[in-house]
Design a protein that fits this description.
- InterPro entries: 6-PGluconate_DH-like_C_sf (IPR008927), NAD(P)-bd_dom_sf (IPR036291), PDH_N (IPR046826), Prephen_DH (IPR003099), TYRAAT1/2 (IPR045011), TYRAAT2_C (IPR059064).
- The protein has 379 residues and is of the alpha/beta class.
- The protein folds into two domains: 66-244, Rossmann fold (3-Layer(aba) Sandwich); 253-378, no CATH class.
- It is built from 13 helices and ten strands.
- It has helices at residues 14-19, 65-77, 88-99, 113-118, 127-131, 147-153, 173-182, 221-235, 246-269, 280-293, 297-305, 310-341, 370-378, and strands at residues 4-6, 50-52, 80-84, 103-107, 122-124, 137-140, 164-167, 188-194, 209-216, 240-243.
- An eight-stranded mixed β-sheet has the order 5-4-3-6-7-8-9-10, sandwiched between helices. The chain has a two-stranded antiparallel ribbon with strand order 1-2.
- Strand 7, helix 7 (173-182) and strand 8 (188-194) form a beta-alpha-beta unit.
- Helix 9 (246-269) crosses helix 10.
- The longest helix is centred in the last third of the chain and has 32 residues, at 310-341.
């Protein structure tokens, strides 16, 4: 900061007086007296003087170059992310995103204003107001069955033309197709699936899988960097980053996630209770029931409805249960024969058949019926 202070005038010598302009000095009118010599007035008390003195030279200024560069760097590395669907999973992601220094906006059909304020998130009840904030990323955290309705209700014309759209659904081919059909060509698309949730990831995300597919990222360094910065949110938390196509993801998910949820819900129907003599295996089953029961049925229905591989897995599960019952009843039949015929069949070895299911057919092919499988085995 530079301050100006007036300094006292120390006087004017005779040489300085001759340099003063007439506007500063006015000669008095003198009578025509040849024997008297006029005297100059004393001006030391009439002429003020201002001098500059430097009081400080290193104070922070509003347009300080270093702070300006720091602000530009922070702005270039942080994102403005709008979460659409601010339920449990949206809040779960928002907490970590905010902690990493990104700006988070939120919109949902329900009013989560208070919860958003706790998480330092700006909540918008109106989708138009949200889009007018021009976020860098639209992150859809809706349920599978409501995604299409929510996406088509957004005022896309109020967004920047190259906005990045990201989903976190448990199925991938469905949102990919929906995005490509609905969003303008200028918008970028990134399909992702965090393979964890509020329960499994409440302590840490380290080592947990994060699947992603860069469906459509436009040309330009800024757009590629924006996509990478979003992925860095999960990479910085220690997630295991898995690049995978949407079709491949759905094939794997049907054999893992859908089967897991199905078995958990089947066991839930049995109303299993903890006992004083629980084994480790039984504890695992109880935990499975607890984890799957905490998710909504809409999620499970979406896994079935929007993954074309789910029906094949459900049919295979049914076949596996039937083959297991056949094997059990086959052993029971042998016991009954021994009781009925006694020693008559001693020394006669009967083959023990164990039924295995055929390999899962490729997508689009129907599973063989039980009668067809039996005919193949006898032929």
């Amino acid at each position: 900061m530079i301050s100006l202070r007036p300094q006292p005038f120390t006087g004017v010598n005779s040489k300085q007086c001759h340099s003063l302009s007439p506007s500063h000095l006015s000669r008095p009118s003198l009578p025509n007296l040849s024997h008297k010599r006029p005297s100059l007035p004393n001006l030391s008390h009439k002429l003020p003087s201002l001098r500059l003195s430097i009081r400080a030279i290193d104070a922070a200024q509003p347009f300080d170059y270093e702070s300006h560069l720091s602000h530009r760097f922070t702005k270039s590395t942080k994102l403005k992310i709008a979460i659409v669907g601010f339920g449990n999973f949206g809040q779960f992601l928002a907490k970590t995103i905010v902690n990493q220094g990104h700006t988070v906006l939120a919109h949902s059909r329900s009013d989560y204003s208070e919860k958003a304020a706790e998480l330092k998130v700006s909540f918008f009840k109106d989708a138009d107001d949200l889009c007018e904030e021009h976020p860098d990323v639209i992150l859809l955290c809706t349920s599978i069955i409501s995604t299409e309705f929510v996406l088509k209700s957004l005022p896309l014309q109020r967004l920047k033309r190259n906005t990045l759209f990201v989903d976190v659904l448990s199925v991938k081919e469905f949102p990919k197709s929906l995005f490509l059909q609905t969003l303008p060509q200028e918008f970028d698309i990134l399909c992702t699936h965090p393979m964890f949730g509020p329960e499994s990831g409440k302590e840490s995300w380290k080592g947990l899988s994060f699947v992603y597919d860069k469906v459509r990222i436009g040309n330009g360094e800024s757009r590629e960097l924006r996509c990478e910065r979003f992925l860095d949110i999960f990479k910085n938390e220690g997630c295991r980053m898995v690049g995978m196509s949407c079709a491949e993801h759905d094939r794997h998910a049907a054999g893992s996630q859908f089967i897991t949820h199905t078995m958990g819900r089947v066991l839930e129907k049995l109303s299993l209770d903890s006992t004083p003599i629980n084994t480790k295996g039984y504890e695992t089953l109880l935990n499975l029931v607890e984890n799957t029961a905490s998710d909504s049925f809409d999620l499970y229905y979406g896994l079935f409805m929007y993954n074309k591989n789910a029906m094949e897995q459900l049919e295979r599960l049914d076949l596996a249960f039937e083959s297991l019952k056949t094997e059990l009843f086959g052993h029971l039949h042998d016991v009954l024969r021994k009781q009925l015929f006694g020693k008559a069949e001693e020394g006669v070895e009967r083959p023990v058949d164990r039924i295995f299911l055929p390999e899962l057919p490729q997508n689009g092919r129907l599973l063989s019926s039980r009668s067809e499988n039996a005919n193949k085995e006898t032929s």
